[in-house]
Records
---
Amino acid sequence: MAQLNTQLVHGDPSARTDATGAVNPPIYNSSTYSFTSVDAMPRWDYARSGNPTRDFLEAQIAQLEHGTRGFAFASGLAAIHAVLSIFKPGDRIVVGSNIYGGTYSLFNEHFQRWGLLSTPVDTQDGDALARAIHGDTRDVPSARAVYVETLTNPLLQVNDIAQIARIAHASGAIVIVDNTFVTPLLQQPLDLGADIVIHSATKYLAGHSDVIAGLAVVRDEDLAARVYYAQNRLGGVLPPAECDAVRRGIQTLALRLERQQENALAVARWLDANPYVRDVHYPGLHGEAVAGKGLRGSGGVLSFEVDPVLDPADILDNLHVFRLAVSLGAVESLAELPARMTHFELPREERLKVGITDGLVRLSIGIEDVRDLIDDLESAFGLAVHHAHTLSFALAGE
Ligand SMILES: *Cc1c(COP(=O)(O)O)cnc(C)c1O
């Protein structure tokens, strides 16, 4: 079988169905497919159930994640919705405590109403995880699944998928991993024991901030049948043109990620040496965080805490190369202030508990020249420091 970079460019050759010789698999713009006769069921009959453009992308992600079958959805959250729909009311899922906000609300609002129970746990703590899965024999049923993200958000702690899978499987629970932050290039969770992998393909896989998409890959045929049912019956499928946009994004994933990681490490080091920065959260900064946990790299997202003498908004508002925006994983660098831009609905105490301090900044590093990124940060910090001094002189003069 081809190596990873070749797979990124060419996908799975057996999923090619077009006979024209077109180098790119065509976008099949058809909602329905004709039968040759009443009883001759065609391979494709109706595009929600499947179509060649989507099949190509689904085969590609299944190949990259070393799974049995892949599924493409209209968004990352549609993928998560479909995967969680394979469970039934009364089932319980243990959920990592620092997960994507939309997923958190899907568990705690939508699925709670639906009767799916969830228990948050610090997945860095193996004993706590084992206890949470086990439940208690009287009231709390043993968990059916563990749901985690490869890197916690926004503190970027590394979850040890192999260890989590060992603990979960010992109690008969399956493991679902949201691999969005690292992609199959840095880790293939199914190889480490996970059962289902999910991506917001909106981020690194598509990679250009121009498409919303989700993917799921399963380990075995039984899970494939259940996820396929949810995909086809809930119907949150990815349209052919978007399938093609994700396919094209995946072709350059390795090149982009390599540059993003190089740039992220340089930015993390620059921040680490900055006297106005307290903690820098980037797994690769001190090397040891990724080693031994199955990761081949640290990705392109990092976060850091600004010294409370500065207003972090003074830094973010003065960035010009970094765009002030949520989301991550694209060619352009983005900056955001979680406490005021994405997590302001959480009560402050709740935010602080999950590590989202008032001065925590998250950066998604792109593929620009790293000198421009660092210059941009340097001048923004300079203006913020100047502003803080002006303020303290004004206060002293009062
Ligand atoms: C963005 C994101 C999602 C949600 O994906 P959408 O494509 O926005 O629906 C889920 N998980 C993680 C880790 C994400 O970053």
Note: Residues 253-397 form a domain with the Aspartate Aminotransferase, domain 1 fold (CATH 3.90.1150.10).
---
Amino acid sequence: MKSKELFNEAKKYLSGGVDSPVRAFKPYPFFAKKALGSHIQDMDGKEYIDYCLAYGPLILGHSNPGIVDAVKKQLELGSTYGVPTQKEIQLAKLVTSRVPCADMVRFVNSGTEATMSAIRLARAVTGRKKIVKFEGSYHGAHDYVLVKSGSGAMGLPDSPGVPEETTKNTILIPFNDVEAVEDLIVNQGEDIATIIVEPVMGNVGCIPPKEGYLEFLRRITSDNGIILIFDEVITGFRLAEGGAQEYYGVTPDLVTFGKILGGGFPIGALSGKKEYMERIAPSGDVYQAGTFNGNPISVTAGIEALEQLDKKFYTELEKKGEYMRRAIGDILEEQDLNYKVVGLASMFQIYFTDRDVYDYQDAKTANTGNFDAYFHELLDNGVFIPPSQFECCFISLKHSTYDLDSTLNAIEEALKK
Ligand SMILES: *Cc1c(COP(=O)(O)O)cnc(C)c1O
């Protein structure tokens, strides 16, 4: 069956024909058959250079041979045990040796679970209720943070089914705005348990912090007894070995991971200073549990992924990203388009707006109709980027110069049209 028929069939059995909303692009999404390196092939026999990369996990490209081998070996030994394994220690050591704030780790199954548990821990540690998040930031699909989230939810910032009692302690402020944080802390500082932040916002396109902004958040949270959580589900092991906290030199109290950490398999993790992490059950009183926590398949893939991700690799990715952003900038200039090319390291996006994008309100000025046309033009020409203006394109180690140059040609043609 081809993608079009599969989608019609899928709509009968799966809500909306997909298992996560952003995947349901119009008129129908292509269905995957297989993928290798920088390329993904669909059921219609068409191949695409992939910049969606499963929305983040595949920094080593699809079907990385080292990961495939390691997982095959582990599969023969069992897929899940319900008792601990040596490999969990091994992966925890890889995390704590790289990530500045990480003394100890709790592995969970998704980024959503990681932020949910991190928020619970922050509330327990401080004995305070309120949490602060930034407009347009995405911390997964759980109730406490499903307020003006990014991630395809741009037109649907909240969700029915989330009682206002649940979100009344969630405070929203604009990103990159110093005064908004200061005002908030003057008025309610003593009630705030945590500020949770994506150090680089990756679910409303790509919005880096203004210079000094993360340092500012670090200072003001420390001064007011507030736990600073970096949600590094995207930036972790992407911007540097130690994630955004290494890249920007700012150390939070707690950090959440997902995506890259699982090497293409489902995982999440919560990590931070020992004094906080020891509050988690069973060493402490803050409950957190999961049947598949520390799953040996995901942990095996994660170990293999992190072992491959050394310093040299990040320099190479930075170069590829820089190359793409500069070339796209040149194309925009040549065509007299005042759109914004943004990003850093292996992340890039074009905002279809003439406004510089520092926060959610700026991002919302983008012309999504034009983005949509651009997306489909690229798709027709064998380039797959995330189907939303409010996602981010990723480059993997497997993207060759040839891949990048043919993509740039496709981008040039698409923008012309
Ligand atoms: C993807 C993402 C999450 C949610 O992770 P899941 O594994 O999809 O639950 C949380 N935070 C950020 C910053 C993300 O990008």
Note: The radius of gyration is 21 Å.
